[in-house]
Amino acid sequence: VVLDAMVPSGATVVGVRVSLDVAHDWVGDLVATVEHEGVVVGLLDRLSSAVYPFGCGGNDLDLTFDDAAGVGAGSLCEPSAEPNVDVSGVVMPAMALSAFDGLAAGGAWRVRVADVTPFDVGVVREVCVTVEFEVAGACSPADVTSTGSAGGVPDGVVDLSDFSFYLTLWALMDAAAELTTTGTCD
Predict the structure, then answer these.
(1) 101-110 pLDDT, tens digit each
(2) How far apart, in whole angstroms, are the C-alpha atoms of residue 118 and residue 124?
(3) H helices of 59-145, where?
Protein backbone atom coordinates (compact mmCIF):
# COMPACT_ATOMS: atom_id res chain seq x y z
CA VAL A 1 0.00 0.00 0.00
CA VAL A 2 1.42 3.40 -0.95
CA LEU A 3 0.06 6.50 0.74
CA ASP A 4 0.95 10.01 -0.38
CA ALA A 5 1.06 12.52 2.46
CA MET A 6 -0.35 15.92 1.52
CA VAL A 7 1.41 18.35 3.85
CA PRO A 8 2.68 21.93 3.60
CA SER A 9 6.01 22.48 1.89
CA GLY A 10 8.90 22.29 4.35
CA ALA A 11 7.01 20.14 6.88
CA THR A 12 9.17 17.74 8.88
CA VAL A 13 8.10 14.62 10.75
CA VAL A 14 7.83 14.86 14.55
CA GLY A 15 5.83 11.66 15.11
CA VAL A 16 4.32 8.66 13.31
CA ARG A 17 1.65 6.09 14.18
CA VAL A 18 0.64 3.21 11.92
CA SER A 19 -2.59 1.21 12.16
CA LEU A 20 -3.10 -2.16 10.46
CA ASP A 21 -6.29 -4.17 10.18
CA VAL A 22 -5.56 -7.58 8.65
CA ALA A 23 -7.80 -10.63 8.36
CA HIS A 24 -5.52 -13.65 8.40
CA ASP A 25 -5.70 -17.32 9.39
CA TRP A 26 -2.51 -17.21 11.50
CA VAL A 27 -1.01 -13.78 12.29
CA GLY A 28 2.23 -15.36 13.49
CA ASP A 29 3.13 -15.68 9.79
CA LEU A 30 3.08 -11.93 9.12
CA VAL A 31 5.86 -9.40 8.65
CA ALA A 32 5.00 -5.69 8.26
CA THR A 33 7.13 -2.61 7.54
CA VAL A 34 6.62 1.08 6.82
CA GLU A 35 8.99 2.98 4.54
CA HIS A 36 9.50 6.67 3.82
CA GLU A 37 12.39 8.60 2.28
CA GLY A 38 14.52 5.42 2.11
CA VAL A 39 14.08 4.61 5.83
CA VAL A 40 12.42 1.24 6.56
CA VAL A 41 10.97 0.53 10.00
CA GLY A 42 9.76 -2.92 11.06
CA LEU A 43 6.32 -2.93 12.61
CA LEU A 44 6.04 -6.65 13.32
CA ASP A 45 8.04 -9.73 12.47
CA ARG A 46 6.28 -13.08 12.94
CA LEU A 47 4.65 -12.31 16.29
CA SER A 48 5.94 -14.53 19.10
CA SER A 49 7.93 -16.77 16.73
CA ALA A 50 10.88 -16.63 19.14
CA VAL A 51 8.65 -18.08 21.90
CA TYR A 52 6.29 -20.42 20.04
CA PRO A 53 7.42 -22.58 17.08
CA PHE A 54 4.71 -21.30 14.72
CA GLY A 55 4.34 -17.82 16.18
CA CYS A 56 1.18 -16.19 17.44
CA GLY A 57 -2.03 -18.12 16.80
CA GLY A 58 -4.17 -15.02 16.39
CA ASN A 59 -6.79 -15.14 13.67
CA ASP A 60 -6.99 -11.40 12.87
CA LEU A 61 -4.77 -8.39 13.50
CA ASP A 62 -6.05 -4.93 14.42
CA LEU A 63 -3.07 -3.04 15.82
CA THR A 64 -1.90 0.53 16.12
CA PHE A 65 1.88 0.86 16.34
CA ASP A 66 3.09 3.72 18.52
CA ASP A 67 6.54 4.26 20.06
CA ALA A 68 4.88 5.42 23.30
CA ALA A 69 2.86 2.22 23.78
CA GLY A 70 3.70 0.28 26.89
CA VAL A 71 3.36 -3.21 25.45
CA GLY A 72 4.79 -5.19 22.54
CA ALA A 73 2.47 -6.95 20.09
CA GLY A 74 3.92 -10.36 20.97
CA SER A 75 2.66 -10.06 24.54
CA LEU A 76 -0.92 -10.14 23.19
CA CYS A 77 -0.45 -13.64 21.79
CA GLU A 78 -0.75 -17.08 23.31
CA PRO A 79 -0.22 -20.45 21.67
CA SER A 80 -3.31 -22.49 21.01
CA ALA A 81 -4.52 -25.37 18.91
CA GLU A 82 -7.35 -23.13 17.74
CA PRO A 83 -6.41 -19.62 16.61
CA ASN A 84 -7.32 -16.76 18.93
CA VAL A 85 -10.13 -14.59 17.64
CA ASP A 86 -8.25 -11.30 17.40
CA VAL A 87 -4.94 -9.64 18.27
CA SER A 88 -5.70 -5.99 18.87
CA GLY A 89 -4.53 -2.91 20.72
CA VAL A 90 -1.96 -0.14 20.73
CA VAL A 91 1.53 -1.66 20.73
CA MET A 92 5.18 -0.77 20.26
CA PRO A 93 6.54 -1.47 16.78
CA ALA A 94 9.40 -3.93 16.33
CA MET A 95 11.62 -0.93 15.48
CA ALA A 96 11.18 2.68 16.64
CA LEU A 97 9.04 4.89 14.39
CA SER A 98 11.09 7.84 15.65
CA ALA A 99 13.57 6.86 12.89
CA PHE A 100 11.38 9.08 10.67
CA ASP A 101 11.69 12.16 12.92
CA GLY A 102 13.25 15.10 11.11
CA LEU A 103 12.59 13.74 7.61
CA ALA A 104 10.43 15.62 5.12
CA ALA A 105 6.82 14.69 5.94
CA GLY A 106 5.45 14.88 2.40
CA GLY A 107 5.69 12.23 -0.26
CA ALA A 108 5.08 8.51 -0.40
CA TRP A 109 4.72 6.31 2.67
CA ARG A 110 4.80 2.58 1.86
CA VAL A 111 3.35 -0.05 4.14
CA ARG A 112 4.13 -3.66 3.31
CA VAL A 113 2.50 -6.70 4.87
CA ALA A 114 3.75 -10.14 3.88
CA ASP A 115 2.85 -13.71 4.81
CA VAL A 116 6.22 -15.47 5.03
CA THR A 117 4.94 -19.04 5.33
CA PRO A 118 2.70 -21.13 3.05
CA PHE A 119 -0.78 -22.53 3.65
CA ASP A 120 -2.57 -19.56 5.28
CA VAL A 121 -4.38 -16.71 3.59
CA GLY A 122 -5.26 -13.17 4.54
CA VAL A 123 -6.46 -9.77 3.41
CA VAL A 124 -5.24 -6.31 4.41
CA ARG A 125 -8.49 -4.55 5.27
CA GLU A 126 -7.18 -1.16 6.31
CA VAL A 127 -3.92 0.76 6.66
CA CYS A 128 -3.57 4.18 8.25
CA VAL A 129 -0.36 6.18 8.63
CA THR A 130 -0.71 9.22 10.88
CA VAL A 131 2.13 11.69 10.40
CA GLU A 132 2.59 14.47 12.92
CA PHE A 133 4.64 17.30 11.46
CA GLU A 134 5.82 20.82 12.07
CA VAL A 135 6.60 23.60 9.66
CA ALA A 136 9.41 25.94 10.69
CA GLY A 137 8.23 29.52 10.91
CA ALA A 138 4.58 28.61 10.48
CA CYS A 139 1.85 30.17 12.51
CA SER A 140 0.21 27.97 15.07
CA PRO A 141 -2.52 29.03 17.40
CA ALA A 142 -1.37 29.46 20.96
CA ASP A 143 -2.69 27.83 24.10
CA VAL A 144 -4.70 30.87 25.11
CA THR A 145 -7.37 29.43 27.31
CA SER A 146 -8.90 26.34 28.76
CA THR A 147 -12.36 27.93 28.86
CA GLY A 148 -12.73 29.24 25.31
CA SER A 149 -12.97 32.87 26.39
CA ALA A 150 -10.50 35.68 26.99
CA GLY A 151 -9.04 35.63 30.46
CA GLY A 152 -9.07 31.85 30.75
CA VAL A 153 -6.14 29.93 32.18
CA PRO A 154 -3.91 28.19 29.60
CA ASP A 155 -3.91 24.43 30.16
CA GLY A 156 -0.72 23.54 28.26
CA VAL A 157 -2.52 22.03 25.25
CA VAL A 158 -3.65 23.61 21.99
CA ASP A 159 -7.11 22.10 21.74
CA LEU A 160 -10.70 22.72 20.65
CA SER A 161 -11.28 25.46 23.23
CA ASP A 162 -8.29 27.37 21.84
CA PHE A 163 -9.52 26.87 18.28
CA SER A 164 -12.97 28.12 19.30
CA PHE A 165 -11.38 31.19 20.87
CA TYR A 166 -9.54 32.05 17.63
CA LEU A 167 -12.58 31.24 15.49
CA THR A 168 -14.68 33.65 17.55
CA LEU A 169 -12.04 36.37 17.08
CA TRP A 170 -11.98 35.67 13.35
CA ALA A 171 -15.79 35.92 13.11
CA LEU A 172 -15.58 39.29 14.88
CA MET A 173 -12.90 40.33 12.37
CA ASP A 174 -10.45 40.84 15.20
CA ALA A 175 -6.89 41.31 13.88
CA ALA A 176 -5.56 38.95 16.59
CA ALA A 177 -6.96 36.03 14.58
CA GLU A 178 -5.19 37.00 11.33
CA LEU A 179 -1.83 35.89 9.94
CA THR A 180 0.83 38.38 9.06
CA THR A 181 2.61 38.25 5.71
CA THR A 182 5.59 36.61 7.44
CA GLY A 183 3.51 33.63 8.48
CA THR A 184 3.62 34.29 12.22
CA CYS A 185 0.66 34.86 14.49
CA ASP A 186 -0.18 38.34 15.70
Answers:
(1) 999 998 899 9
(2) 17
(3) none
